[in-house]
Amino acid sequence: MWRLTQRLRPHINSTRWMIRNFRSGEPTGLYGFDHLKTANGFHRFVADAIERSGELVSYISGMPSSPEIIKAMDEISDTVCSVVDSAELCRQTHPDREFVEAAHKAAMEMNDYLHHLNTNHTLYAAVKKAEQDSNLLTKEASRTAHHLRMDFERGGIHLDPEKLDKVNNLTTNIFQLCCEFSENIAEDPGHVDIFPGSRIPRHLHQLLNPIYRSTSGGLRGSKRSVHSSKEKGFRITTDLRTLSSILQWTSDEEVRKMVYIQGNSVPHANHGVLEKLIASRHELAHMMGCKSYADFMVEPNLAKSPKVVTSFLQELSKTVKPKADEEYIAIRDFKREKCGNISAELEPWDETYYTSMMKSSVNDVDTAVVASYFPLPQCIEGLKVLVESLFGATFHTFPLAPGESWHPDVLKMSLHHPDEGDLGYLYLDLYSRKGKYPGCASFAIKGGRRISETEYQLPVLALVCNFSRARDSSVVKLNHSDVEVLFHEFGHALHSLLSRTEYQHFSGTRVALDLAEMPSNLFEYYAWDYRLLKRFARHYSTGETIPKKLVNSLQGARNMFAATELQRQVFYALIDQMLFGEQPETARDVSQLVAELKREHTSWNHVEGTHWHIRFSHLLNYGAGYYSYLYAKCFASTIWQSICEEDPLSLSTGTLLREKFFKHGGAKAPAELLMDLAGKEIISVHGEGIIPATTCLLNELRL
Question: What are the required cofactors (predicted)?
Fold first, then answer.
């Protein structure tokens, strides 16, 4: 097959859009892009992407063959995504403010250019022509043509110019509101000042900033009756990670209460941002002929309709409620026993503290002891053991070229197969630092795609976490929950690294939203399985392998409050559906709606004055799609029990996962992928959509 780039003879060399091989150590820019040697390089990066895309648009306007139309369209997508994805990773992780601001500007410019592409009637006509010529296309190319046409129509290309202009303005406004929502969370995490400092457990002091205040008092035997001294306290910044630690370890209930209320009441600015976001998304959906933004977002996915989603969630809520109520009573009674007050009520700020204590006491689990077996370097070794066992591939540390990295902590790994060569590249940015994206996520940089019969563009991505360094130790030790998060994100990474789609449009995680979280949930199981843990979990100082008894205790604690956790996820998903569902004629109080949903669908009180949802960032990227996490948990449980559990580390298990699922990315219909892998019982038709089988998950959680 001849290469489109050769026929076009562009003055932009197409290899500039590929990740280069840096074995020679030659200087480059961020992520291997020569453009990004400096922050100003983002300007040229954008300009070259627009110029290259313009050449491809001109080529497509000549109406070449349908296969070439799809190939050129995919190259446009790849070129634009290279800039957009790189800018997003830079915005979230780069320590240099100049780079962050340049990346933000680049993202805005590319967002505007995307509107230009998405409203190009020549491209739309070419894609429709290609779809009609499906007999001339491969199955994947035909599916790509169909999805491209749908993308154009979901962008409003069929609307009259005035309405289309309005849609474009709304889309830009929504993007800006999402950025503002995230920035507010980062800039206003809230804080609480606690005196004296002894109210905070000593091992948490490293997370906090010491503060001092003057105190006055009598001094016996002194000529002066009053003296001043400094009392030490701590300022607790109520970001999510610190908030979680304080709620888990602090015995002082008043401190927990203060921190919980503050952490769930900021940033205040997001009240207005969220209301505008809801209104803008609803207006956009209405202009696209949908009743709600939820209708607009759910329709392309397995569920097809918000009615299907809501029915699934409400049924799950009913199923889990009796057990969740039992767990609530057990926690309340435990609190009463511990505090010696038979009438004490259980409050939301008590949950983490008492459930952690109950898990430790019943299962003899000391979290500090557990963490000693999970030094971060050994956990990375665990990821290597896993891919070698399952896929016969190895992770190698790959030398970073000068200018390629954004921080000294960053590592680069290549996934190598003995028969196939390198499969892709993975950056690891695992330590927390000021100004960095606060959560854990997998960021795409380049998607995989076929360039010619002999050349394949390898996927490149970054796995970003926020593991804390202890001030009193050079060894970073992970809590087991952190290990689970690492394996979760690694599942996303493998989805991208192992896919071998012809087009980057379907590379890796570019699948239906309610399927995207399945691999990550599946790989969480490996963080609990002793057959893998014994091969990498070793004590940081003695080298002792983690005892089987300790892992059994961890597993015993795992599902002690499974109903409570599942109920919480259902509640989150229902909030998401209600906020972006059909809107009432009169304005509603969002905080009141959230409070009512909590009372109806959880066993816990709502604390008046708290507004947890204003820092729920999943409302941005997963707007009307948070239910997909529950779909994924159901799919993953079925796949684990039917395929992996018996022999989770065998090459045959890995081959099945790779051949039936991973390598296809989104190039096959999601229902087809699931049934090919685990049989038709994994899903069921519900009305106009598809829901997952829940039996395996409910049995696993003893519900």
Answer: Zn(2+)
For residues 337-356, average pLDDT:
97
Say if 237 falls within a structural domain.
yes
SS3 421: strand
Q: Report the chain's C-alpha Rg in angstroms.
A: 27
Whether 575 and 543 share a structural domain: no
Single-letter amino acid code for the residue at 518:
M
Whole-structure pTM value? 0.92
Q: How far apart are CA 544 and CA 526, in angstroms?
A: 20
Span of 467-471, 502-506, 648-652 with lowest mean pLDDT: 467-471
Cis peptide bond N-terminal to 67, omega within 30: no
User: In one letter, which amino acid is 230?
Assistant: K
CB-based contacts of 695, cutoff 8 Å, min separation 6: 638
Query: C-alpha 337: how far from its chain's center?
Result: 39
Number of domains in the chain: 4
Q: How far apart are CA 482 and CA 484, in angstroms?
A: 5
Q: Is the confidence at residue 9, as pLDDT, over 60?
A: no
Per-residue pLDDT, averaged over 373-389, amounts to 98
Which residues constitute the domain of residue 388?
Answer: 370-558
Active site residue 489: yes
Distance of CA 458 to the CA centre of its chain: 22
Tokens encoding 635: 């799919």
Note the pLDDT of residue 135. Answer: 86
Q: Is residue 180 part of a domain?
A: no
Residue 488 belongs to some domain of the structure: yes
**Domain closes at, from 263, 279, 294:** 263
CA angle at 114 for the pair 110 and 118, rounded to the nearest 5°: 175
Catalytic residue among 75, 351, 404, 489: 489
